[in-house]
Write a structure and sequence with these properties.
about 375 residues; Dihydrodipicolinate Reductase, domain 2; seven-stranded mixed β-sheet; globular
Length: about 375
């Protein structure tokens, strides 16, 4: 990547949906960053975002914004199917691009985008924000220090009530754009689940994924994912469900010397490892230490709810590192290899989804013939 060699970076944002609040809050408060423009197809949304976050101008045409603002950095925060075209337009305008997940809908599409960015001396970076959340970084540090030993087992679990009446995914009359993705709504989350898995497995050799639609109906392609990911002797499980309570987002890492559970919705780390006193006292000490941590977390969680803090706390760290790389010409915190390995794992999981749909289609055809 070529550095912009500017102290102050001109930034533009395309898309003013829910996630844009997090990006715009960072840009509006970051030193040496100027919010030059905000764009959305809705003039009302664009104007409101520009006024709220202090943008110099608002637009309903991204092409007009790129021409008028000449940004150094563009955040592409639109539905996934639009990422490829918008990213290419931003690169053609000479801007580095931060793209919401998924950056591309296939590994081949990502490599094509990457080649175009490299050819222009620019960078594209996919948002892997949960990698930078405090609990995830704590578990990663434990592994780096050898406190958990060698990783043997990983589980990434996300429980969200996507079918709940009144939710943004369950409206039959105004379906969310993610329903059109190859795996439907779950596709919107599978990038997060994949890069968190790979952070602790280091790669993958094979996958076996079961995609299900337990709730039935035509609106949701799938509402459940249960996948096994193997990398050498390391086993990983990716789990998405909308049928359990409470909402949860956890990453469990088991090693030869201990176990850690990172909770991203109620931020804390539960840790089991050998303690002073040996095998007989370690279980009691672990429970005492974790009990104190949970009590503290419960109070902090209440404060977070009152102050309306969200699970996006890692986004600030991700953006800080990315902007520093843009400014200096360094390597962004999410690298080419990180993105490529993630999109390849998603490809592998989606291949199983395609087989599942084909099987259901053949089964339905068989029943119709009977």
């Amino acid at each position: 990547m070529t550095a912009t060699r500017k102290r102050t970076l001109r930034t533009a944002v395309i898309g003013t949906g829910k996630i844009s609040d997090e990006h715009l809050s960072f840009v509006a408060s970051a030193p040496d960053v100027e919010l030059a423009g905000v764009c959305d197809l809705s003039a009302c949304s664009a104007q409101f975002a520009a006024a709220r976050f202090g943008a110099a101008a608002y637009f309903t045409s991204h092409a007009a914004m790129l021409e008028d603002c000449e940004p150094d950095v563009v955040h592409v925060l639109t539905p996934p199917a639009t990422h490829d075209r918008l990213t290419r337009d931003c690169l053609a305008a000479g801007a580095n691009v931060i793209v919401e997940k998924p950056i591309a809908l296939s590994g081949a599409a990502f490599e094509s985008l990457w080649a175009e960015a490299e050819g222009r001396g620019l960078s594209i970076v996919e948002n892997h924000n949960y990698r930078f959340n405090g609990p995830i970084q704590t578990v990663h540090d434990l592994l780096t220090r050898g406190e958990l030993g060698d990783v043997t087992d990983v589980e990434v679990r996300l429980s969200l009530p996507i079918r709940n009446e009144g939710g943004r995914y369950a409206d039959e009359n105004l379906p969310a754009g993610s329903h059109q993705l190859p795996a439907g709504v779950i596709h919107e989350f599978v990038t997060h689940l994949s890069y968190l898995t790979l952070l602790f497995t280091g790669g993958f050799d094979s996958t076996r994924a079961t995609w299900s639609n337990h709730g039935g109906g035509d609106l949701f392609k799938f509402d459940d994912l249960d996948a096994l990911v193997l990398n050498g002797s390391t086993h990983a499980r990716i789990r998405f469900t909308c049928q359990t309570f409470p909402d949860a987002f956890t990453v469990t890492v088991r090693g030869t010397e201990g176990m850690a559970v990172a909770d991203l919705f109620l931020p804390h780390v539960y840790l089991e490892k050998p303690r002073a006193g040996g095998d007989k006292l370690s279980p009691m000490v672990n429970r005492f230490v974790n009990g104190k941590s949970l009590m503290k977390t419960a109070w902090t969680g209440l404060q977070d709810k009152i102050m309306q803090r969200t699970a996006y706390e890692g986004l600030t760290r991700f953006l800080e590192g990315t902007y520093e790389a843009f400014r200096t010409g360094g390597t962004p915190p999410v690298t080419h290899d990180d993105m490529l390995m993630t999109v390849r794992l998603v490809d592998a999981l989606l291949a199983d989804a395609g087989q599942r749909e084909a099987h259901l289609g053949m089964a339905g055809h068989g029943r119709a013939a009977q």
